[in-house]
Amino acid sequence: MTIRYPFSAVVGHDDLKLALLLNAVSPAVGGVLVRGEKGTAKSTVVRSLAALLPRVPVVAGCRFSCDPAAPDPSCPDGPHESGLSPQTRPARLVELPVGASEDRVAGSLDLERALTEGVKAFEPGLLAAAHRGVLYVDEVNLLHDHLVDLLLDAAAMGVAHVEREGVSVRHAARFLLVGTMNPEEGELRPQLLDRFGLAVEVRASRDPAERAEVVRRRLAFDADPAGFTAAYAGGERDLARRIAAARERLPGVALPDAALRGITAVCAAFDVEGMRADLVMARTAVALAAWEGRDEVTSGDVRTAARLALPHRRRRDPFDDPLDDRGHGLDEERLEQALSEADDGPHDDGPDDGPGGGGGSGGGDPTDAPPGEGGGTGGQAPASPTAPYRTRLLAPEAVGRGGPAGRRGRTTGESGRTVGARPPAGRLRRLNLPATLAAAAPHQRGRGRSGSGLVLRREDLREAVREGRESNLVLFCVDASGSMAARARMRAVKGAVLSLLLDAYQRRDKVGLVTFRGEEATVALPPTSSVELASDRLARLATGGRTPLAAGLRRAERVLAAERLRDPRRRPLLVVVTDGRHTAGPDPVVTARRLAGVASVVVDCEHGPVRLGLAGRLAAALGGTPIRLEELAADHLAAVVRDVRRVA
Ligand SMILES: [Zn+2]
What we know:
Blueprint: H1 14-25, E1 32-36, H2 42-48, E2 56-58, E3 87-89, E4 93-95, H3 102-106, E5 108-109, H4 111-116, E6 122-123, H5 126-130, E7 134-138, H6 145-157, E8 159-164, E9 167-172, E10 176-181, H7 190-195, E11 198-202, H8 208-223, H9 225-231, H10 233-249, H11 257-269, H12 276-291, H13 299-309, H14 332-348, E12 400-401, E13 405-413, E14 417-422, H15 433-440, E15 463-470, E16 473-479, H16 487-506, E17 510-517, E18 520-528, H17 531-539, H18 549-566, E19 572-578, H19 588-594, E20 599-604, H20 614-622, E21 625-628, H21 640-644
Parallel strand pairs: 1-10, 1-11, 4-7, 7-10, 12-13, 16-17, 16-19, 19-20, 20-21
Antiparallel strand pairs: 2-3, 5-6, 8-9, 13-15, 14-15, 17-18
Helix pairs in contact: 1-12, 8-9, 11-12, 11-14, 12-13, 16-17, 18-19, 19-20
The structure holds zinc ion (ZN).
């Protein structure tokens, strides 16, 4: 068994520790999302929480951790007799690996045994293991879409549900969800973001003395884990006792009207979506009061709750950074203003339809004006993109084989609609019942069938062949040279690329950006899942100079080669945005032919009365699809592309 670093030995990280402790006191707070760069010991702190949690009473022998006081009526190991002597086990922290299979997470129903041996065989998954404990997802932003959906469903219902061809199993799955992520590697889907009660930004301390202490303790732990842990046993015991005491105190904590008014005023001032933020803030404030041994929520509790519960909930568009640059991601001035207005509120206008109306204080509501954003494009700054629009779907033409789940290219794999059947290569995963029955039918007499039951053998089993959508790497190769640099034109080009980026964000693709101008090509953005980063680089992209188109393509070729090693399952789509002219370096057509194996699209930016059609020639050399810039919008009536070559 590995010895974990003690929670009480963690230096700094006060908000993170507090957020975890408040969830330990009140799981209703709804979990924690921890954001921060690599090397900030996020995972260490999260993993150390389990040791502090009270032991869990369970029904002996139940693989689904039923509570003896209230066993789950749908428990697959049930029904349990009442009045069994309960036993307790330590609270679990279950880690969900980002690449886990659906079976591993939700549990697997062994249809093969069910059909051929007539037994109902359900193997519990990680959701069952995490019931009444902590479910921890490291790199939660990289979690596959279908796992995200599983997680969202379980988190919303408190129930895990497995269904295979009409046979279904359900069991309770209530857990504290904790995720860690490095925002540089991509953002979280908004629905999942909202699932986390609290969000904390973690960064390494800037204080040399504190950093020294971190290193000192880490070295001591690594040298002698058992001895180090023993030295902190007292601190761990104290924290565990304090959690247990706070849990007992929790139901009696009062939330005074003034505090509730503060909560709703703050949520209104920060323009959060829905009511979940208000609820989470209230629960957090109550848990905080219990944790501090008080019986009533104070305005200080509300302030802290806002800091932990709001940063990831403000309304925003997908290109905004969910957290501001400041440490806590919350505008403290605005928070104080909202709280003081809430204090004054009832004396001034005292409407009895409640404080939730937010804007009821009359007047012009100056906080509504969006913070300066749109104005900064004048002068010599790079051309800003035009407003993004919905683009048509650009995708590889061929059907892929088992790429990562996504919403772009077509692929065979574990999910999607059934397009055929075949004998299973290994263990049966997705039964195709009609095909199985069809395979068994001719042998019934030969197998001596006499009654009504079908005689099934293993060789009859057929699994479904499915076709779904995959996530791709969309690599943009953008011409930023002088021929493209007429300001209005560049705005349109940037707007187009921005729109395609937005599309990639919604489809959960990886994106990369290569640009070329003057004498060289540069990788403006190596392949990443962070579309925010890409759009930021794009907005700041300088333009002008000669056109080294071949250099751009060669650069793209190298990026694709490196990605093929790093992420071999993900198919690339190369999107070249250019007018096709080249005024520096070798002939691009030669380079383009080397890229002919890669699915590609050339967005033709040529304009003006005289057209040379160079981009079309480039597309032909690439073996790709040409599309005019003006035809990129989804609502543009251009059937041409679909006629020439089916893109979507
Ligand atoms: Zn049970």
